[in-house]
Amino acid sequence: MNYRHAFHAGNFADVMKHAILALVIEHLKLKPAPCRVIDTHAGTGRYSLDAVAATKSGEWRDGIGRLLSGAIPADVAQTLAPYLDAVRSANPNMSDAPNAIPAVYPGSPLIARSLLRRGDYLVANELHPADHAELARHFAGDPQTKVMALDAWTAMKSLLPPKERRGVVLVDPPFEEPGEFHRLADGLREATRRFETGIYLLWYPIKDPKRIRSFRARLADLGIGKLAVAELWIRKPVNPDLLNGCGLAIVNPPYLLGEKLDVLLPFLADRLAAGSGAEGVYAALGSAPLDRV
Q1: Phi/psi at 66 (5° precision)
Q2: Spatial CA neighbour of 67 closest among 24, 124, 10
Q3: Active site residues
Q4: CA distance 254 to 105
Q5: Which helix (H) or strand (E) element contains residue 190?
Q6: What are phi and psi of 38, to 5 degrees?
Q7: Phi-psi region at 252: left, alpha or beta (left = phi > 0; alpha = psi -120 to 50)
């Protein structure tokens, strides 16, 4: 309950996570049937980059700040377009000039809501009392958004399957307590029993590579057929106490997502690197590319 995302908003992990979330939502919109986005750890939804928390950590400067600090190749720009459109939607006064930096960073619920069509639906869940209150203020009066304040795993049980039977579930725990990796895998097992065809995005930090290999093995033991992993390593993990990267375990990855991430992740590794050994990898769980990292 002590974690506050305001200190980390717009960092490299947000860039990677939110760019992929935006791609998944765009995929769901290819069919006319309504879809639902469920965000289990939604935060406040909106973060001022000149607020005390953001300026104290400065993490956004090495994330969204560095992403926008130079030209982006055309193929990467096309992949990033839904995400960056959502960032600009939260910053209507943002300049179109190169190197323009947003004043506000949109969290995952705001990004999702900006991309949804009429008839689609967002459930944003946040347990932290102050963050929940702010989140509720942002979405007050929005008939396409429901804001909840439940334990994330309780929320998953009560919300799945969604009535639309189409959608994405973003699970982004704070990892401030022991056992989060185990809870993440166990929660995924239960969720897929309830909503087998849903798309799941499970975020995790990368510090000690041994722990990540163990987590991948635990996911593999779940026996989920369509399970891939996207990982962004911003440095070689020499120091396991540092945040050396982050990953997303993706259940039922959309068609062509892999091709897009094969372009996007190496670019992000190069642009957002914090040292030697940076790498971006997308692969089916248990495949050879993951063995390198």
Answers
A1: -75, -35
A2: 10
A3: 172
A4: 26
A5: helix 180-194
A6: -115, 120
A7: left
Sort 73 into a burial class: Cβ within 10 Å, 0-12 / 13-18 / 19+.
exposed
For residue 134, the one-letter residue type is: E
The model's pTM is 0.95
What residue has token string 């869940």? Answer: 125
d(CA 14, CA 279): 16
User: What is the radius of gyration, based on Cα positions, of the chain?
Assistant: 18
Side-chain half-sphere CA neighbours of 119 within 13 A:
9
From 103, 98, 94, 87, select the one nearest 19 (Cα to Cα).
87
**Structural domains of the chain, ranges and CATH numbers in brackets:** 5-291 (3.40.50.150)
CA distances from 209 to 171, 174, 203, 216 (A): 21, 19, 15, 10
- Which among 206, 150, 162 has a CA at the least distance from the CA of 33? 162
Predicted confidence (pLDDT) per residue in 82-105, tens digit:
999 999 999 998 887 767 889 999
Q: What are 32-58's pLDDT values in tens digits? A: 999 999 999 999 999 999 876 667 778
Residues 108 and 17: their CA atoms lie apart, in Å, by 9
